[in-house]
Automatic annotation (TrEMBL):
Species for this entry: Lactiplantibacillus plantarum WJL
Span of domain Aminotransferase class I/classII large: 32-383
Cofactor: pyridoxal 5'-phosphate
UniProt-recorded name of the protein: Aminotransferase
Keyword Acetylation included in the entry's annotation: no
């Protein structure tokens, strides 16, 4: 018998595995399950990007790159940001290549957090930011965005900070287009938030991984307005259907990038060289690869949004990403975990409980429409059957 020692880092011992992953694994054991659980594009990586990776293998790109990543990839990433969003970064000393946006998040938050600092977390939110803040012995403080259909306003931030006079507010996590709500912002809204964050002297960790997936308006980066106060995160997972390639980016001022690089080098040394060569192709010859995917996602959004709205779900209409975050209708189980487990068991449809995105997500469910239209029709048929079964109504 192996004895487990319990003298580990106390912070780590209190961190839980993501509810999203736990629930996905649990329901995967149910036969004939339709899963709309994970944020995983159903598209394949473009052929020309795969070809670039194959060539990199043949050309023996099997050695370390520098810690910051291949210069040609940093140049491509900087060009992409300037061409698409009008924000300028010097590839030499303002761009880092990371192991996906997840490592970028960890590097950014670890760099700015001191013990006791407070970081504003607009909630509901993708949960990955929270344990990283806790690992740094800082405090995640949750600001409920549900009161305004998940849209942050300067007044909400002002009021939240005023309500916590004893806290040392260091920064705010901004994720838009947002996971799980699909909400994003137009230029006037982002400019107003930038002014607010500047006034409060907050670092802004801006996770813009879904920037290429907006519907109805172009993405506007907050780095356009307060570049020296923003640590900008992006990557290739969503824009180029490259989740498994693990290529992300950090963009920041020269001074901040020098600090980020210290954390990054000890976490990972450098991103995979072959994947970096594929990234060069993605951001140059594939600079517009997201366009056909975006058109298909929008059609899927419209179908799912309309179907669920007719079933009584209240939904803030998503304007980005590929998620629906829906309020469970009155008369049905409002415990989101119980609702989702019952739906999975009875009708073989898996969606994520809202509590997976914080306490503010209770009473909601999230589903990913990064799935084929055929699969989405099947899913909506199963959801309709569940909602129309009188036995599932608790009133």
């Amino acid at each position: 018998m192996t004895l487990f020692r319990d003298d580990l880092n106390e912070t780590i011992s209190h961190i839980q595995v993501s509810t999203i992953r736990q629930f996905d694994e649990e329901v995967s054991a149910i036969p004939d399950m339709v899963k709309l659980t994970l944020g995983e594009p159903d598209f394949n990586t473009p052929e020309h990007v795969k070809a670039a990776a194959k060539k990199a293998i043949d050309d023996n790109y099997s050695h370390y790159t520098g810690m910051a990543g291949l210069l040609e990839l940093r140049q491509a990433a900087a060009h992409f940001q300037e061409t698409k969003y009008g924000v300028h970064y010097d590839a030499e000393d303002q761009v880092l290549v990371t192991v996906g946006a997840t490592e970028a998040i960890a590097t950014a938050l670890t760099t700015i957090c001191n013990p006791g600092d407070a970081i504003i977390i607009p909630s509901p939110i993708f949960p990955a930011y929270i344990p990283i803040i806790q690992e740094a012995h800082a405090k995640p403080l949750f600001m409920d965005t549900g009161v305004n259909d998940f849209v942050i306003t300067p007044k909400m931030v002002d009021d939240f900070i005023a309500a916590h006079p004893d806290e040392n507010f260091k920064g705010i996590v901004l994720n838009y287009p947002n996971n799980p709500t699909g909400v994003t912002y137009v230029e006037d809204e982002i400019k107003a938030l930038a002014d607010c964050f500047h006034r409060h002297n907050l670092w802004v960790v801006s996770d813009e991984i879904y920037s290429e997936l907006t519907y109805g308006s172009d993405h506007v980066s907050i780095a356009k307005f307060i570049p020296d106060e923003v640590i900008l995160i992006n990557g290739l997972s969503k824009s180029h259907a490259m989740t498994g390639w693990r290529i992300g980016f950090l963009f920041a001022s020269k001074e901040m990038t020098a600090q980020l690089k210290k954390v990054h080098q000890y976490y990972v040394t450098a991103a995979t060289t072959i994947a970096q060569k594929a990234g060069v192709e993605a951001l140059t010859n594939g600079i517009d690869d997201a366009q056909p995917m975006r058109q298909e996602y929008q059609a899927r959004r419209d179908f799912v949004y309309q179907t669920m709205s007719k079933l009584g779900f209240k939904i803030a209409r998503p304007t980005g990403a590929f998620y629906i975050f829906a309020k469970i209708p009155a008369g049905f189980e409002q415990d989101s975990m119980a609702f989702c487990k019952d739906l999975a068991r009875k009708n073989q449809l898996a969606i994520i409980p809202g509590t997976g995105f914080g306490a503010e997500g209770e009473g909601y469910v999230r589903l990913s429409y990064a799935a084929s239209m055929e699969k989405l029709h099947q899913a909506m048929d199963r959801l309709t059957a569940y909602m129309q079964e009188p036995a599932n109504c608790i009133n």
